[in-house]
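Incident log, support desk, overnight shift.

02:14 A customer reports that sequence design results differ from what the structure should imply. Their input is reproduced verbatim below. On-call engineer (initials T.W.) acknowledged and began investigating.
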């Protein structure tokens, strides 16, 4: 995913297009995100499938995110 294009789409208010860019090519996976929010500290997107946080794993597939606070 092109992070600068994603950010510019968000700033322009085109959130559906930004989410489409993030899931491009992975639309039919089980944990493909349905929404996202922007982290205020890092400025990076946080993706969610329903109420569960998801992230891309090493193989490039969407999976449930690991808990960052063990």
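02:41 Re-run completed on a clean worker. Output:
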């Amino acid at each position: 995913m092109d992070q600068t294009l994603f950010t510019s789409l968000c700033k322009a208010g085109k959130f559906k297009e930004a989410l489409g860019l993030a899931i491009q090519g992975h639309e039919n996976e089980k944990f493909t995100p349905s929404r996202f929010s922007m982290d205020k500290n890092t400025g990076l997107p946080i993706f969610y499938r329903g109420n569960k946080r998801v992230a891309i794993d090493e193989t490039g597939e969407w999976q449930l995110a690991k808990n960052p606070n063990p």
